[in-house]
Specification:
This protein is an alpha/beta fold and 261 residues long. Helices cover 30% and strands 21% of the residues. The chain starts with 10 loop residues before the first strand and ends with a helix.
Length: 261
């Protein structure tokens, strides 16, 4: 695969697993997009570290270095059409992305969002970050360890908004996300997260990507295809291949719309 470096103005797609990268790479090829794809590894630590390294290459640093407020969002015209004979960018270009897309699979808490459904997150949260008070879970915010309305949080959630979110939400359902360190697979944990956050999908990276991008002042959206219901763990009910196929199709449609916007 040929690697291109067009500097700034790229769209950066972050995925956790190589299987998701394959789906996204095919989608970008169909859309004729000059995108950059990074495979971060599974989980919040891997996503956050890899994404921060990539953004730092473009001269973007954490908003914490600016008194806790994010720098101004990057601006520029998306250049998504590769020159004749060129193909998808799959390694870091070092430029400042104008948009980060988190893409991958997810579990669903809602019967109407069944395996194969593709959604975007309207907000995300760190669903299992907090205090275990003798079996009762208290989020960081409820325990007085963080302010639920200090940027980038609103009510303990990180909202997604802006023109790229509006464009995607016009044809992809927008749902509430929950990000966990341990994939939920027992009824007690599922009930706890549902009661605390009322989420519609669950991932292991979404809020980490949202937080990193928000603090860096980079617009972000998260596209997820449902592979399973969040229920007592039963891999026989999972359909990862269906989720990846539908993720590929919807990402191709989205990238075409971004390209033409």
């Amino acid at each position: 695969m040929h690697v291109m470096n067009n500097g700034t103005g790229e769209i950066l797609i972050a995925v956790a697993h190589p299987s998701e990268e394959e789906a996204v790479r095919r989608a970008a090829s169909v859309a004729g997009c000059n995108c950059e794809i990074i495979v971060t590894g599974v989980g919040g630590a891997a996503m956050s570290w890899t994404l921060q390294k990539r953004l730092a290459q473009g001269g973007i640093h954490s908003g914490l270095a600016h008194g806790g407020m994010p720098p101004a969002p990057a601006t520029g015209k998306l250049n998504m059409t590769p020159p004749p004979g060129e193909t998808l960018l799959s390694h870091a270009s070092g430029g400042v992305p104008v948009l980060v897309i988190g893409a991958g699979i997810a579990g669903s808490y809602v019967g109407s969002i069944s395996p194969g459904a593709v959604v975007i997150t309207v907000s995300d949260c760190f669903a299992d970050m907090g205090v275990d008070d003798n079996g009762r879970f208290i989020p960081l915010f409820g325990a007085g360890l963080a302010d639920a309305d200090t940027y980038p949080f609103t009510g303990g959630r990180i909202p997604c908004k802006g023109k790229w979110f509006d464009l995607a939400a016009a044809f992809i359902p927008a749902v509430r996300g929950a990000t966990v360190n341990m994939s939920s697979g027992s009824q007690a944990v599922i009930d706890r997260i549902r009661m605390t956050w009322d989420p519609e999908i669950e991932t292991m990276e979404g809020a980490w990507l949202a937080y990193t991008c928000a603090m860096a002042g980079i617009p972000w959206i998260s596209v997820r295809a449902v592979s399973n219901m969040v229920e007592p763990r039963n891999l026989k009910n999972w359909d990862i291949q269906l989720a990846l196929r539908n993720l590929e199709q919807k990402m191709a449609d989205l990238l075409k719309m971004i390209k033409d916007s």
